[in-house]
Amino acid sequence: MIPGFGITFGFTIFYLSLLILIPLAGLGWRSASLGWAEFWRLATDPRVLAALRTSFWTSAFAATVNVVFGVIVAWVLVRYRFPGRRLIDAAVDLPFALPTAVAGIALTAIYAPNGWIGQWLQPYDIRIAYTPTGIVIALIFIGLPFVVRTVQPVMEEISREVEEAAATLGANRFQTVWRVILPGLLPAILTGFALAFGRAVGEYGSVLFIAGNIPFVSEIAPLLIVIRLEEFNYAAATAIGAIMLVLAFVVLLTINLIQAWSRRRFGYGG
Asked: Fewer CB within 10 Å of terminal CB in the chain, N or C?
């Protein structure tokens, strides 16, 4: 056995329990104390269902978009050398460092009807700010680095000799990418999707300004939780939080199972 396993394992369990398991257990206990009938009544409130639907579909859509463009960005950064490459590489991490409220204000200033981009869309009756489309754009902005930084190191480890061997065997460029490169990247892509999705579901600051927060239209579940807390309706806030926890866990567990299958299927990632 590796020396120090007992101490490090004990610290891991303590740290995990203190910061994650105990708070989640508290949320579960609080939800259970409501009683099934009361919990179901709060959970099936039309406004709650609309907010949950908005949060999860916008998060899933934004994470999917980030997977497509994140893989492209990672490919460009890994496979090409060009002036300004390091600048672009550093810019990818900006959403990590930028306060989410600042990101929300900046996006609103750009896409509002009188914004830099919004003013050109206004004559065509195209609205981005204060709509679900604005939510998707905000979630794409904050989620892209998760995909790029997950896929990039894996892509760097893929040997060019594998591509050359595929070309020698008669594969064209598209077949090489689709049947040789992407299978090796699939576990990392799924991990990036899970991280981007998980970050998006719980996002609050950047969405708050650009969403407009219109009930049944552009109101997200985290905002509704805050509203219920400000109303001192702790039972409703707890119910919404518990539902988000369960749904997010199911989605992430499904992604992890697919990821494990892809590793066994294609023999990459461990």
From this structure: N
